[in-house]
Specification:
This protein is α+β, with helices and mostly antiparallel strands. It has three helices and six strands, in the order ββαβαββαβ. A hairpin with a 2-residue loop joins β1 and β2. It is elongated and about 55 Å long.
Length: 127
């Protein structure tokens, strides 16, 4: 796991890639239209073991002062995917920059699936 070092007159501050990934994951799941993150095998195993993985579906590359983020998303059926993606990019970039001071150069969104409600709502006019 790599860490980002910020050195000033008082010492250094180290920010790990996992911290950036957790911030990005929480910011992305707060966007309306996002059903969840797509984590693959590693994320699925962690959840089976009862451990909540807040960085699930997030891949981060952190340089000295910059970060690039890839997010793997499942959207709600009916959501306008381009608008959801743009909203995610904006919120993730702002959250990571505000909390870490890193310059976010890329937020790439990968739509991995669509979530359908299990309950099919019946139209009240049809019987």
């Amino acid at each position: 796991m790599e860490e980002n070092n910020i050195i000033d007159d008082y010492g250094s501050v180290k920010i790990s890639e996992e911290v950036v990934a957790i911030i990005a994951g929480i910011a992305a799941t707060d966007v309306p239209g996002v059903a969840g993150m797509s984590g693959g095998i590693a994320g699925g195993i962690a959840e089976i073991l009862g451990r909540k993985n807040l960085s699930k579906g997030v891949k981060v590359e952190v340089g000295e002062k910059e970060a690039a983020i890839d997010l793997y998303i499942i959207v709600e059926y009916g959501a306008r995917i381009p608008e959801v993606a743009w909203d995610i990019q904006d919120k993730v970039k702002n959250a990571v920059q505000e909390m870490t001071g890193l310059n976010v150069v890329e937020v790439n969104i990968h739509i991995q699936g669509v979530n359908f409600d299990k309950e099919i709502k019946k139209d009240p006019e049809t019987k």
